[in-house]
Amino acid sequence: MRYSINKLSKLSMLKISKEEEKMIAKKVQALGELLEKLDTVEPPKEAFVLAPEGEHKRDDVPVQFDSDDIIKVFNNVKERYLKGPKTL
Amino acid sequence: MNLEGYTLQLILKEIENGSLSPEDINEFYYKRSVDLNRVLNAYITLLEPEKSRAEGDLKGIAIAIKDNISTKGVRTTCASKMLENYIPPYDATAVSSLKKHGGSLLGKTNMDEFAMGSSGENSAFGPTRNPLNREYVTGGSSSGSAAAVAADMAPIALGSDTGGSVRAPASFTGIVGFKPSYGAISRYGLIAYANSLEVIGILGKSVDDVNILFKMIAGKDPMDSTSVNVELKEKNISKPKILVIKSFVELSADEVKKEFYSSIGKLESAGFEINYADKFSLTDYMLSAYYTIACAEASTNLSRYDGIRYGPKVESAGNWRDYISRARSFFGPEVKARIMMGTFILSAGYYETYYLRALQLRKIIKQEFEKIISNYDAVYVPTMPVLPWRIGNAIEDPKIAYAADVLTVLPNLTGSPAISLPVGKVREFFVGGQFIGLKNEDMKLLKVAEIAEKVLQVKRSGRN
Amino acid sequence: MEEIKVGLEVHVQLVTLRTKLFCSCSSDYRGKPPNVNICPVCTGLPGSMPTLNRKAVEEALKVVLMLNAKPYETSYFFRKTYFYPDLPKNFQITQYDKAGGYPLAHDGSLKLSNGKTVRIERIHLEEDPGRIYYEGSRATARYSLIDYNRSGIALIEIVTAPDMSSPEEARDFVERLTTILSDVGINVKDYEGALRVDVNVSYAGGERVEVKNVTGAASVEKAIVYEMFRQKTMYEKGIKVVRETRAWDEKRRITIASRGKEFEAEYRYMPEPDLPPVTVTESLVQKVKDEIGGSQEDRYRELINDGINEELAKKISSDKDLFNIYEKIKFYEPSLKQLAANVLANEISYLKKRYSIKTLPEDVSGLAEILQNYRVIPDHESVVAYLKKWMEGEKVKVSLKTVSAENLHDDIMQIISENYDKIKNLEYNKKFEFLMGILIKKFGKDNKKILVEELTKVLNKTK
To answer: For residue A22, what are the domain limits?
Structure first.
């Protein structure tokens, strides 16, 4: 199966440069071969989820994280807002 | 003062009896790291030693941490241009546990970008070189952690293991690499690549070293809903009962096989009960199941990297979608390939074809393995099917690196604990042998490995 | 008029929670500066992991039970991937009902005021994204301002079947749902933006159009009115209505085509590997039932404190509807509460059953009118008639019997003949008192003046 690097990169929101395109295509092809081995496997009768075991719930008690520490991580800040690109 | 060959255990003893101070120790490793890092490229970030007091179980010793484990105030890059300047505002739970026990931070080690790789060559900061022979790979993805321990640039190190990323470099550099049971060590703060497969692991010079650190950082964490409490009491085993899966061994190169079988002979003579199984039914599909699940999870885990909150700053020309795509161009080619493959696997029409089948395989593999292991103390197979290759050799054919995982992915699929230790020697390299145990029976596995290590006595240069 | 089909996806913030769905940040963000209730988890920092708020499941189950939906014993969280600056991980943790996934609950219902039942297909938990703001006009702004205080807030999503056929029905649904939510303490009216609706409208069997993020019952109605008009116009012109997602412009009262995030049809759902499944056991359901019912004790106590007798208090406290009315009357006119309790427990209860009246009117002014004039309503039958009228949602005006002199004359004569034996030997004043008693009972104290006049006339004549 041929994988469309163009289509997949768009869906994955990835910009691929001309230089790396060939190398990436090779890797995708190799991964694809591993994937396609699954074609010969019997599919499960119905879809299921293999979730982690156990039950782990948290109490509804507020804990304050130092929000200033997070703002320090942000690239662009204006008056405590994160500055981001304009969306339509 | 020369601490080459010193184990962590020995260092702690010497601090306790006053022969060494934490300052001296940390100073030694720091200087040696500064020196050797130029060539080996084991560290991405090295920290100058702080004034340490001999407190807690770790008595102020500085530890090397793989650069995908969050360290508060210290740059954590995942060996990627995407996080080149990212400084986490919090410590991973494993790191704060180490600090609680009196440990400190030596530096952040090099790795394959976002833990995707088996050789240590996929780093945006250059490959890590094998201390045993600098032209060769260290194995990955915890390449820097392994090189640091092997070259005495660190007393012990934390790594992560998604498909073999602690055991492979341990095998290739001739040290001990321990992958605990899934959930035994909190993943909170481990920058995710494949959540259902990965664990934080430990690389050290001996099984005892790894045991010491494991007990300090294992335990259920309220911040990680998948973490569990595994029994930490030492186990006693007089005559370890081992199962060797022949089909696994047959996947290895001749020189690996020879050393591996030779090690079996030694173990048997020392009283190990060795049994053989011809094959493990789904051997052929393990890699496929692993890569399918890993790529799918990776593609969503890495969606958050869009340059908006943190990451490379991109000029805002064009619309917001362009902005995001351009920011995400900072990933390396291996990461991009796996993200795209993951996107493909999860897209409409393919989910049933690949992802569900991989889940099904995983379920069966788990059940089968649990059945097998119930009669034995451990399964014993080689860690890597080959010896280290030359840096750059695998570039032309990506399949080489993917195939190198074939012997290590099983414990990640099943959640079992596994440990690699040097069991033989070929030229300047070592052959790694891997013990795999029953999930949550980590202490039993460590005991088996400890006994094997004493029996096999594969000496690296230096003292125990 | 061709038929329209309306289905709703209602997103409700679980405002009774103190923390977010997957982290311990405070959920109290309104009126706070931007980015104060944030942590590595709700800002999606590398290495962060979600942890489920146990109370969120319980609060969600309250709504599930109130809507007669059935909880699944095991449900899962899924990742829904789409890129947008208000979504820190670029995926939302939600629940999915395909690919092996199960939502929290399924198959519930809500009865509208007009008696129609709207089916509720599923109810599930998910996290809210952050908020995006613009300085000045959106068109001229060069960047966005993002606030993650709301990111990670617990939402419950209620998805209906396309059972509604008019803007009014949709509005009614939202209003009834709001009441039900407040019955379990989720007072969405007190929190701006706590209830948002995605409205799905299709006209004449055509494509379904989704209008996202409409706030408030009134706006839901308006949005459907506009969409109906827009789709009808296209239909009549022979233009095919395209399946799309639109946004609601509150100011201009129109729906507009929305580009951007809604573009992606593909969400690439995948199970969330960091969260174990949600298990809802029998005992948890019972615990939640008790909590909902536990307010019955509160209601009973309040009635007793008000001086209502035990029997009445028991009856009223067991029915939320009855109690609501009691509260409203009490607020309206406190002096009526005793009578209200009586009437609620007896006549109204009976009528509810007898005529299968599921919900009592919001507006209690008609009932208050009946209660205020209770003593002058001549007979019990009339009282019941008035009550039934009110309960069926009709306007009630208690008309006091029209008393005119000539009618009255005949009535008085009749009363005298009926009671002749009793009064024949009474002297005048006693006779007068006795007859006045009967007359006032029959015609009401308000008519005393004319009653006195006429009775005097009649008695003097027959003297």
So the answer is: 5-40
